[in-house]
Every structure is written in structure tokens, then in C-alpha cells.
Write a structure and sequence with these properties.
There is one protein chain. With about 120 residues, the protein is of the alpha+beta class. Helix 2 links the parallel strand 3 and strand 4. It is globular and about 45 Å long. The chain starts with a helix and ends with a strand.
């Protein structure tokens, strides 16, 4: 399962770079949780949850990012932002979900920008 997830994240990174995003961190951890990818998209700091699915998965990747998972990602993002200590104040923030399928040959099936807000 870890290999599937790693391949999915690698494909999501390639996808985001093609869209012009700069990758800042991968698998960033804090006491609040983990964020798969932190990227910069222009002026916006993007926290990305990657959901990788092999064949035969019954729950869609989007459905698996439930309210509890959203809250954990939001808390982790707030912790990351607090560490930036930017004198200009907090950056613009967006939470995306990228759904990857294909196992050995991963492919981004869906990119959902602004999938949920800070309230999680």
C-alpha cells in the first residue's frame, strides 16, 4: 500500500509542476498530522491530500477525505503556517485533493482545487 501511495504522490507532484506549482514540502508532519504535499501556486499556499486507488476500490478517493480527515489536514496546515512567522501575515491558503489511479502506471484522474475550507 505504501508503494501505491508513493507512486501516486510522485504522479501528483509531476501534475502540479506541469500546472506551474512549486513544490515546497512532501509528507510534512507535525503533532497535528501529515500533509502529503505543500505547494506554492502563485500567491497561494496549497495543501494537497493525495488519494491513490488501485483497481477494485469501492470508496472514491474524494469520499475518503471525510470531515475528520479535513479537520486533521486543516490543523496541520495551521501549524505549518504558524511556523512561517511571515511579517506580512498569513498567506492565501487552498486545500486541494488529487485522485490518482492506476497502480503501477499512475494517472491523475481528478484534481479538486479548493476542495474544502479552513473550517474543515
Amino acid at each position: 500500500m505504501k508503494i501505491l501511495g508513493d507512486r501516486g504522490e510522485d504522479e501528483a507532484v509531476r501534475f502540479l509542476k506541469k500546472k506551474g506549482c512549486q513544490i515546497i514540502k512532501r509528507n510534512w508532519r507535525s503533532k497535528a498530522g501529515e500533509v502529503d504535499i505543500i505547494a506554492q501556486d502563485g500567491e497561494t499556499l496549497v495543501f494537497v491530500e493525495v488519494k491513490s486507488r488501485g483497481s477494485g476500490s469501492y470508496v472514491s478517493a474524494v469520499e475518503s477525505v471525510d470531515a475528520r480527515k479535513q479537520k486533521r489536514i486543516t490543523r496541520t496546515a495551521l501549524h505549518y503556517i504558524s511556523m512561517l512567522n511571515d511579517p506580512e501575515g498569513p498567506p492565501l491558503v487552498r486545500f486541494d485533493v488529487i485522485c490518482v489511479s492506476g497502480g503501477l502506471k499512475p494517472k491523475v484522474e481528478e484534481h479538486i482545487p479548493d476542495a474544502f475550507g479552513m473550517e474543515g
